[in-house]
Protein 1
Amino acid sequence: MASPATWCVLFLSILIATPFAQCFETGINLALNKNAMQYSQDPLPDGLWSAENAVDGDKTCTPVDSTHFTLSGRGNQPWWQVDLGIIYNIDRIKVYGRRDSVHAQLQGFLIHISTTAITDNTFTLPFNQTPDTNIYPANGVFDIRISVTQARYLRLILGHTSITPLNWITWPIVICEVEVFGPNERISELIQTIRGDVTVSMGIPETNGGLTFSKDKAIDHNTRTDPNACDCCSITTDGWWMIDLGRRYLIQAIQVLGRSDAHFNENKPFTVSVGDLKTNLTEIYSGNPNQGSKSYFITLNPAKVIQVIKVWKKTPAILTICEFQVYGLECLDGQFGQGCQHKGFCNGTYDMATGECLTCLAGYEGHTCSKACDKGFFGPDCIYQCGHCLTGSHCDAQTGICPQGCDNGFKGLFCNRGCEHNTYGENCTSHCGHCSSLPCDLVNGYCSGHAKVCEQGFLPPKCDTECLDGTFGDECRRNCSKNCSGGDICNKKNGLCPNGCLPGYNFTGDRLCFTECRLGTYGLNCAENCGNCRDGLYCNTQNGQCMFGCDRGYQGAECQNECEDGWYGENCNVTCGFCKYNAVCDKVSGNCKSGCDRGYRGKQCKNDEKQDESATCEGQTAVELLAAFLSVSIIGNVVTVALYCRTKIWLRQGKEDTTNHYTVPGPSMSSEYSTIDVAEMNSIPTDRHYANDG
């Protein structure tokens, strides 16, 4: 029996994951995962529920919520619509509604089918009689059979109205699921019917123990999957196998049987390409639809016109095909035996004579897939155990769904998926906090980490609570600066002040506003330079005021303003003198650079010449008298010295004449002083008179 991974579930998300893997149970749902839309005006307070919910394949239809149902607006008239993508022949429509007592949100709906886009609610049905949708089925499922009709667009319209105290409106249209089917046709394996027309080719065949696994063994109608025992498989070492059907056929499905022994993974992953010619192939599938099992059943929806099919690996490697089958027709109802009187629940192809299957549909087991699963098991051949259902309850044997929900930390229809996307708790409806790196605990939501538990700005253990105002950073251990502008609270993650700093702090260099302005600057963002503070001292970094006053020539609290004209000095409290031409004096020293007005003198032009004249003259006379006295004294001293010298010479000469008779060599002692006699000396005046004395 094939691996459980080969099963195909009509109603589960596995079906949604690939457009090809779909079982023949009740036919191919043409609406599955197609584009859907709905009337969106005048929604209820709960808002709109997605129109795509009606084509997601989920027919559990419970509870009535935004996950399982659509919910339109309430305008006149609400509608829901699906686009099948291309034009199909359809003959059956199934509409799943609510299963409770609320029927008005679907009962009495109308159907509009069209091959072109539907733009209004004018409905014309392409069959003779409108189905009676006013009778609400007990199970909530409207199963509508119509004659075979071409259709691409299908619209459901809620036609009746209801009265409210305010106005006439309709109920919103609420739908769980919509399925659209084409005519039931039988398809059967094609290759054996046309065996003489097909040609097969492949890469280099594998040989082993005298066996050659040639290209034709994949279509020898032997479905055994143990090549070393049965010698019934095609094996190539360079990864490609191709069949030409001889002419074009409308193909509905392709089946590839791989090996089931220890080398079962030789087929994963592989690619299937189809086309009219060997040189013009289109890739229709790439991967491994059954997660490595031996059986691969790929449906083509819609069926394609094909002549050549190639199975290959994008990276050359061993490829094993034990049997390759192509289906042009297939029985869709699971019946088998004489007159098709017996019923099995096979997944894919089965022996219509005996009912034997490769695998069973979910919920059944046995050779003919007729036995239901035991409690606690579900799925194909009943080999899967139920997930983490709430309080240990059993899941549904066919779907694997836990009817009462999941244990904390698990979610999904099967309750076998741990919470993801940062969720935890019951049905994973709670969201993890701001954990630092790892996801939170799936059950209680606690965060864990090595260096730190939470992202910056949040408190442990769940990291779902922001830091208290005034704190920030890892686990809120740091305090905000008190210097944020306007008393703002800093950012709780990084501590940044949102609107800058108070005056006196450097926001450009420190956005946390802990750093004061450097000396000589002040104000918002330290953008202002200090004024001319006294003795070069620095100003206050917040308001720029000079605490000890201004330098000479400046005034104001910030010492930015020069003295007004006519004032100078410290604090500008001294008035200027009488500068020439009414010029402004120097605002630091008070000096008049242009000179003084008449009658004033001094650097600052503050001295009145008339008032100072007498004092000036008296001073001048005293100076002149002192100078005269000093001059006479100097001359007298000079004369006295001259007379002394002269007397000494004279006395020396007289002594020589009387006592020394020798001639002493040398210069003559006579000089100009020798001609001065005593009378002349006596005639020298003793005091001097200056010419300016008169």
Protein 2
Amino acid sequence: MSTFVKYFLLMCLCFTFLYLSFNLRNLQFKPRSYKDKMDIADDSNEQSTLAAAEGLLLPRGTQTAQADLLPVNKVEHPMEKPSRPHIVFILADDLGWSDIGYHGNAVHTPFIDQLANTGVKLGNYYAQPNCSPSRASFLTGKYSDRNGIQHAFRDGQAACLPLYHRTLPEILKQNGYSTHLVGKWHLGHCREECLPYNRGFDTFFGMLGGSSNLFSHISHGNYDFWDQNKRAMKYKGVYSAEAYGEKAVEVIENHANSKNENPMFLFLSFQVPHEPQQVPPSYINKWKSYANVKPERRKKLFGQISCMDEVVNKVVNSLKHNHLWNNTVVIFSSDNGGPFRNEASNIPLRGQKRTHFEGGIRVVGFVNSPLLSAEVQGKTFNGLIGIADWFPTFIEGMAGGQTDRVDIDGKNVWDSLRYGTPSPREDYVISVGEECLGVPVRNNTKYWDTMGIDPRTSIRSGPWKLIVQQDDTDPSTKPADVLLFNVDLDITESTNLAEENEDIVRRLRQRVKEYCSKTVPIVSFKTKHFPKSSNDNQKGCQLDEKYVRRGN
């Protein structure tokens, strides 16, 4: 080989080596693109910051999926996002513990019974003693002492659920849900800002107050039946429960026909079996056994409940017919126990609506869904659950959102319900009462007559139930009684164990006092105001500085 050829080959090798070295170096130190960074699993901090800037509420977890960073109005591909179920929450009004078929009563509720018996029945499920406080706890995730609602709103009252609360439908909407209220509101309506469609619901159909004629829909001389902000006059003479069923089916069909890939939240809020005891005769005449029910008010109560049962069946059938059922969770609940004046029965529980005994606050409830594991279907869950728990259960457990920005008392119990794991809740506070005031309330005009503060203290903790009665409305107790029951062993609350368990009484009273610093002013108790329309005479509504939205 000539010297020239050897020299030429050597030069080629040198150039090849230099070329490869240069390009390998460029490949090794090439800056990563923004998209490359998003694909890295442990870049969660940067992704969370970007998502927060977009106003998204992200699911809990150690890392964030790229799909979570899409703009709020961007529709994700169905196969790329977790399946968020449709949520249907059905609330009965003043339903007694034993006034349901599956609790052994003679009332006919075959459809509700089937749902309960194939779902998960709630054995230790608590609400507030009356209407508005339960609804407020449900929609805010807070105890009544923390949301300002300790009493039922009076029709025409110049106050409403304080506007600084972020409500359940508001946050569900931010997580992609359409939100609908069909039925009873009962959380104040004296200003446009107070009305359901300004508190997170896309649509509202129903009544704003607490009670009205079930056919004429007249309450205190006013027609209280609305479709958004207009009176729904065509429903005059239509039984309210039937009208609510018709509208609920319409909401379901509209959602299905819209081909909306996002989920739906439907709050179906009945006025039955609340007074007045009115019902179409067909719901009484249908069942021969009702002919022997006495007195007449109880017979009508049975008819109301049977009507509600048939409406629930129509709603479930609509979900199935519109191919939504397989990804739907249905929750059935009462807002409180049954009142004796309506001939309601809470047997074997002691007490009634407005009392802090089990008959006033332990309520009928169950969950049914194809999403429940086979191991829990048809069983009773005896873990402790409260009505405030639906707030984080829906948002965190079902919607995949967060409640970190909202100061709540509720616990996410979705895994407990669908898998049967222990409840994350150890206790449930019904009322802090005088424990936080340090002064008697019952005979103190400043606190009772003006502010409407419930003087009673009550808490359920493990098997124990403490009531510091401070109330003379129950003839079986003295106003100053301190009552302690083991409700796991004594469901009738017949044996007061306070004297022999003073350490437990002290512990539970101290537990209640831990909430004292978190209580808020009670919404005005005795003010009166009923607007003739949603925009009339709004100056009477209590919306001063302490009720201005504070962002949490």
